[in-house]
Amino acid sequence: MSWHREASEIELRKQLSKQQGGEESIAIHHRKGRLTIRERIDELVTLGSFEEHGEGAGFAEKDDSGAIAEFTPANYVIGFGEVEGRRVAVGGEDFTLKGGSPNGAGLRKSVYAEELAVQFKVPLIRILEGGGGSVAGSGPRPTTVGSPVFAEPRFKIIADAMNQVPVVSAAMGPVAGFPAGRLVASHFSVMVKNTSQVMVGGPALVERALGVSLTKEELGGWKVHTRSGIVDNAADTEVDALAQVRQFLSYLPQNVWQLPDRLSSSDDPNRVEESLIDIVPRDGRVPFDMRALVALVVDVDSFFEIAPDYGHGQIIGLARLDGAAVGVIANDCRHFAGAMTSEGSQKAKRLMELCDTFHLPIVNFMDEPGFMIGPDAENSACIRYGMSAVAAAVQSTVPWANIAIHKSFGVASAAHFAPNTYKLAWPSWEMGALPVEGGVAVAFHREIAAAEDPLAKRRELEEKLMQNRSPFPMMESFAVHELIDPRQTRSKLCRWIDWVQPLLEELKGPITWGMRP
Fold it and tell me: In degrees rounded to 5, what are phi and psi of residue 90?
């Protein structure tokens, strides 16, 4: 007796799983402008490289003869694929089945996604569109019901994955409950404008519990969560979102036991940009474009910004120097003069933790006026989050280079230096405990108040102290390694990136606590 009948059933189940929620459900999904999970995977990975795991998982109803009469696939698709020649684990909910709310096998497969990535030490890409648990249950019979959502191994493997392999999540439609938790438990996240929303509970649940009526977009759309910090970036389309996923991964290694690939670069490491000599105005009250400055220093078109709409006083991202991947932190003086806010502190800290986890050197372009002051800063616990960023910096294990561009005042400056930081400074650098403009009013308030013309006296004192803010004494005392012509910044950093390569080799492996959500 052969096993042809069983083999045929296995193949039939696989074919039926490809039908997902059926033609009508798929058509409705397409009319909403969204791809199915299988179409998204095809768009993400190299054509023909996807190797699915658990194709036949699901629930089959059989007729009296034992033949399959109806088959409901697991509504989570998982497998291996290749992205730019690298193996990745990729998975996501099938929204055409129960709106992505997990059925039993689907829930088990979603947990297996992290297990697969950790076991084989490959990046994990989640393509999210679905809800959490449902009061209707997760399957038509008890055997299809998974373990409780609070099961310890489920959450431990999520944390373990973040400590060992790159984890990236893309929200392609409504994402609620546990999938929303998975979204934030990532090293990078992106959502599609106007078609994806992220929330703990949807509008119906919010209205029932709180009496507040909101649309999905008002509750958790891209304008809400790129500003809240829940999601890093927004994308115009699903194709754009997946392109951002690929670009982010290009800067990271396969896992913490490896280093990122150093790409061959056609950009001259000794390239000189004349515009850097006057990019910082002599009048310190006039803002300048820090993003343009960063772009002129790093390899051409290599800067990938993360969370541009959150923590506006800080700029973070990934870039390359002579082909080598680096993390970038910078101040944006066009927002709060670049001051460190509570949100900006958390944003900078996340970049530090990302780079520590995957052993990327950090380049810090400093224009730091200090921690933000005022009632909003106090109400948002600015100093607590600021000191958390300082702690992350001083405990960082990767090489840092700091370029003192303009200002470095107060305790917040400590968030720009790790142990053994390579310190460069521009002639435009000013430093001290407080900015002169505010410090004079505090330190000399009696003298100013007693003057015949208090305003003139304050200006006199400010001008006198400003003359003492020259960076040349810092160079003379070797308080910085080098005071440089701004046009030399790229060549100096490209040489530094060569120096640190042997140090990075020694750091490979997991750190005690990696990046957390």
Answer: -135, 140
